[in-house]
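Problem 3 from the worked examples.
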Amino acid sequence: MKPAISYLRVSTDRQGKSGLGLEAQRQAIARFVEAEGFELVGEFIEVETGKGADAIAKRPQLAAALAAAKRNNCPVIVAKLDRLSRDVHFISGLMTDRVPFVVAELGMGVDSFMLHIYAAVAQKERAVISQRTREALAAAKARGVKLGGPKLTEAQAMSRTVRSAQADAFAANVFPIIRDVQASGVKSLRQVAIALNARGIASARGGTWTAVQVTDIINRHARLTSDPRGPIAADP
């Protein structure tokens, strides 16, 4: 088993205390670790505001995780790239310092060029979200809407519902293809991912498939349909 360090990050103290987001990250990393043959030898959890916190000095747990990785001569694993940062310069700095890190969502073997591209997309996404939020709040204020309170909570809940419905619909469309691949004699989930990529089928985020993502689709389908086979774990 190959050693690895996990790093989880949430953006507010409230989220840190409630565990919101932490368990999802931990589960994603656990599936990836199992699929790729890693063994976690340490876990570091950061709770910070996110905005303006892209310096190592402001991220003591990340600094500790990187130091532990160097001592153990192993990588730091994160669930998603934005758990490290949405800033291209910050990601580039980690790569320049030859700090090994692996993004579970992207899988193994992602080269430095692609990591720069993903980081640039994440940075642009943050800027677009911020701009749209400011414009929406300004428009609501101009209409005389009182900001915050129950209406904001309701809007956030609706957004989560929409995202969940989109994920369910995607799973429903892709699951029959996965079963078709398996029916052809492919058993390993990693090989299923390879087959999906060979067919030119994009993942939910438009990227390539990994065993972890195939597992997520199968498990989501099981929850939606009460499939008697139930959820499964990613295989090596």
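Problem 4, a separate protein:
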Amino acid sequence: MTLQRARGPIVRRVVLGTQLRRLREARGISRAEAGYSIRASDSKISRMELGRVSFKQRDVADLLTLYGVADEKERSPLLELAREANEPGWWQGFADVMPGWFQPYLGLEEAAILIRTYEIQFIPGLLQTEDYARAVIAGSHHPGGADVIERRVRARMSRQAVLDRPDPPKLWAIIDEAALRRSVAAPAVMRGQLEHLITLNEKPNITIQVTPLSIGSHPAEGGAFSILRFDEPDIADVVYLEHLTGAIYLDKPEDLTRYMLAMDNLTLRSTAPGDTAKTIEETASHHAG
């Protein structure tokens, strides 16, 4: 694997953690022994290997020595990765108005090559217009005044830059018809949002489908979720589930399988991508006024 391909600080942590775990296991060293060498617990080593904490270069250097990595040509890329893994992501500038549990998702989203998302209540954040985002954020009744709302809107718009990169991820969004019909903003804003979806659906890296209300029961009734895929072989797909006060990140094979099947089922039961524009146009008449 080419370490330099890892994109974004959070993904770099995961890649570095995986490399450290492999080196430790190859030497037959326990997490407790590794933790002792850097004056830490075995649980700290576990969190490091999962990429869930930042890395001190001194700790990485000490672990590499313990694992028998003495050649500077082998040590240098890993130490450089440790430095890069601690660089702040763009979202750090909005940390005061963004929940901590959401920030890891932004790092994963930034590094993904495929984002599959199902949304039942709102238009997905990556596809929202500024006016629609402002209405949704203002209606969420978070503490703070107009300044906080505007900063959260700016953060959401900044997040969308991932789709305009020279090498953008593929975004496959399935939106429940209820989200298109829900009047979370003034009629003009809603119509503008729906027109925006039609425009985005024409981009080669974006596919939008609509799940009609008429399909009734389906496997994803539990709510919205996203599945992210990466081109780094050391990083498994991740399922992201959000609730009112936090989020859950799932990467166990059995969880991934269930959510993949649910997403595939939704894909088959939603509008064909070529029919999406017509479906959205028909829904837009609901917001006349």
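Solution to problem 4. The CA atoms of residues 236 and 253 lie 9 Å apart. The radius of gyration is 22 Å.
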